[in-house]
Amino acid sequence: MALFKKAKNTPLDGVEALIADLDGVVYRGHLEIPGAVAYLNRAAERMRVGYLTNNASRTDEQVAAQLTSFGLRVTPQDVVTSPQAAVQILHDTVSDGALVFVVGGEGLSNELDKAGYRVTRSAADKPDVVVQGFAQDVGWRELAEASFALAEKPGEPLIPWIATNTDWTIPVPRGTAPGNGSLVSAVHNAVQRLPRFAGKPELAIYQTAFARFGVKPGAALMVGDRLDTDIKGAKNAGMKALHVLTGVDRPKQLLAASADMRPDYIVADLGQLYEPYPETVIARDGAVRVRGAKVRVTGQDVEILQEGSSPLDLLRAGCQAIYRSGLAVYGLRVPEILVADYWRAAE
Fold it and tell me: Which CATH superfamily groups domain 10-54+200-276?
């Protein structure tokens, strides 16, 4: 006799707001991911659809303009940025009109201006707080100046430090480049303390989205492609999370995901938002079956009992079998077929 864990009919059942990441979900680089716009516009006909971005270099108007150019029906109010979340933290940290030392570009300075904060780029002005975000032209001088502003000074309290996000890398047309997390790390090395972060996977950006879209966490679905930001943040915020295999994290990362980064759903593309999600069936011997695929962990071996006809169902079953084992994937013998990336090969 098997024990059954039923999923909802489709990932969208019971969802009042779909909240999506951008790069890797809607587009890759400057190109739309095939079908993404049509599927998201379809969702917007029945629920609120919003977009979350850790990118602090652009304003919500600029992001909305890019999405509109792809054919999405979107306004700036549908876009929540990490600078907007940073401003919410500022409200709870310093007084209105405080002097803010800024590391970053227009996406950050624009939000500070709208919120009525004064902005400086000089530590000599004795700012009340440092806010750090990404811009492609941030260099050593800006990072050094931030370090001077944050440095411990005899007889004076340390000033607060807020960073928009922790992304270590960003995808660019030529490859992978250092992200804001790497720039924050440079300042951290100089001042030997860490900032408070606003963007994914931290709560601030999700709380900003819930307030903006008028939805409770339990009625929202996060759609993302990165486990350490999108999925971890959603789980931390009390949301259901859907991982789509059109972006950064692949089967290898899914199989190895720690408990705080495990999605509720795994799909190949956004079209599967509208398809019945298969049941996960757990047998008494611990074997996990997803439709025709069946996987079991015995000792240190991940055993494929049935491959089935769908590589995606096999991946889903493999993930659940490993997760339920309580064992770290690096201590297991995992068949190559489970980590095979059929979806990247099909791009």
Answer: HAD superfamily/HAD-like (3.40.50.1000)
Question: Which listed residue (13, 23, 125, 137) is catalytic?
Answer: 23
Tokens of 70: 């792809």
Assigned token pair, 44:
């917007």
- Give the DSSP letter string of 125-144: G--SEEEE---TT--HHHHH
Collapse the DSSP code of 114 into the 3-class scheme (helix H, G, I; strand E, B; otherwise coil) and give the result: helix
Within the chain, which residues score under 70 in pLDDT? 1-8, 345-347
**Cα–Cα distance, 219 to 210 (Å, whole number):** 10
Specify the DSSP class assigned to residue 23. B
Domain 84-195 = CATH 3.40.50.1000: yes
Tell me if residue 21 is catalytic.
yes
Q: What would the two tokens of residue 296 be?
A: 């079991």
Among 13, 21, 167, 260, which one carries the catalytic annotation? 21
pTM listed for this prediction: 0.91
Tens-place pLDDT, residues 15-65: 999 999 999 999 987 889 999 999 999 999 999 999 999 999 999 999 999
Q: What is the pLDDT of residue 1?
A: 34
Residue 57: which of 109, 22, 19, 113 has the closest Cα?
109
